[in-house]
Amino acid sequence: MDKVMRMSSEKGVVIFTKSSCCLSYAVQVLFQDLGVNPKIHEIDKDSECREIEKALMRLGCSKPVPAVFIGGKLVGSTNEVMSMHLSSSLVPLVKPYLC
Amino acid sequence: MNSTSTHFVPPRRVGIYEPVHQFGMWGESFKSNISNGNMNTPNHIIIPNNQKLDNNLSEDTSHGTAGTPHMFDQEASTSRHPDKIQRRLAQNREAARKSRLRKKAYVQQLETSRLKLIQLEQELDRARQQGFYVGSGIDTNSLGFSETMNPGIAAFEMEYGHWVEEQNRQICELRTVLHGHINDIELRLLVENAMKHYFELFRMKSSAAKADVFFVMSGMWRTSAERFFLWIGGFRPSDLLKVLLPHFDILTDQQLLDVCNLKQSCQQAEDALTQGMEKLQHTLADCVAAGQLGEGSYIPQVNSAMERLEALVSFVNQADHLRHETLQQMYRILTTRQAARGLLALGEYFQRLRALSSSWATRHREPT
């Protein structure tokens, strides 16, 4: 979906969330802890929420939110972000986008 | 010509409330053993002479046939007939096998009965809550059974009991091999088994969380001291590192760097999940508290809260995922021997917490 592609490249680190999703919030907190200020898209506040959800699932997310994009590329959801961080592969990825 | 008749009665399931029946055509000594409820193998099992049967005893045992029993004169026979030694050995093997089968059946019966007992206690609880008077001889809490009427939880509790037993066995084994000599390949196998055992626990908890997430979060399935340290339904990954690290003698520079990074990233991930949980608590509280004063009906609040609670399952899964990844990374960073020591330290830590719980529970019972 074009809109999703556009939104995911708006900034170095982009996270699609829902305002009610607390796990999305946890991922957001993690990136902020790393010194990154991610762009947050609360898709439940978007008129095209359904389409965005479907597009995210089609891209390979098991759950629509949280969906993390770094440098315009889909990194994954909470599981992937946590695994990457513990194996020290997340920090190098976000290095170009530190505040 | 040897008779082909066999005199086995098929193994019976031993119900724990039934007296153990006599096995019909066997010798007198065996009869008295059985009527005492003795589960041990008898000294003689009477089998007719037939060498061909030795390898096929398992097939023959299910057929009980009539016929005259053949008595053996042990001493005289074996010295003159070496094939009778073979037969005796086969008889013993068969006896042992049957004994194992009986034991297995007995244990299965016990486990079924235990499940039934759990269900009965849950029904009692339900009856009490509905206002019926039920004799208070059995306190379900003190027996440690789940308060829910959930078969998924009852199954989990039983599985967890087995898990702890296997854990204790593995710890013993690690302790033994680390004091002695063991080659790296065998040690690696032990370490991988221990890791898989933890991963198995996370899988079990995932099913249990689907059945009743509050139960997993409460830690009621663990001992009291373990519950004290509970973080989202289990141990803190950062605590894991604290327990392991003092036990590593020499770490290379690369290992030190990796461990340092792991400590930091583990702490950050943990903090992120903790904050997510706090947000969940706030939103849940807001949900429950919402609405006008004195409305009377609380169904809308309860319904919206129920939706929020689904998220709790995801949090438990994420916390276990974090535990899984922390263990995995430690395994990657350490040598096999270091990993074995680490796993032993971790296992013993939990054993000590469990021992602490028992000591604490019984402290008032000691005479002063």
Automatic annotation (TrEMBL), chain A:
Glutaredoxin domain mapped to chain residues: 13-75
UniProt-listed PROSITE patterns: GLUTAREDOXIN_2
One Pfam family this sequence matches: Glutaredoxin
GO CC annotation terms, alphabetical: cytoplasm
Protein name: Thioredoxin-like superfamily
InterPro entries: GlrX-like_pln_2 (IPR011905), Glutaredoxin (IPR002109)
Compartment list: Cytoplasm
UniProtKB/TrEMBL annotation, chain B:
Record field: compositional bias (Polar residues): 50-65
Key words, A-Z: Activator, Coiled coil, DNA-binding, Nucleus, Transcription, Transcription regulation
Transcription regulation found in the keyword field: yes
Subcellular localization: Nucleus
GO cellular component: nucleus
Stored CDD domains: bZIP_HBP1b-like
Any Pfam family matching the protein: bZIP_1
Single biological process term from Gene Ontology: DNA-templated transcription
Recorded coiled-coil stretches: 103-130
PROSITE patterns the UniProt entry points to: BZIP, BZIP_BASIC, DOG1
Gene Ontology molecular function, alphabetical: DNA-binding transcription factor activity; transcription cis-regulatory region binding
BZIP domain mapped to chain residues: 82-124
Predominant location: nucleus
DOG1 domain boundaries: 153-363
Name under which the protein is recorded: Basic-leucine zipper domain
Family listed: Belongs to the bZIP family.
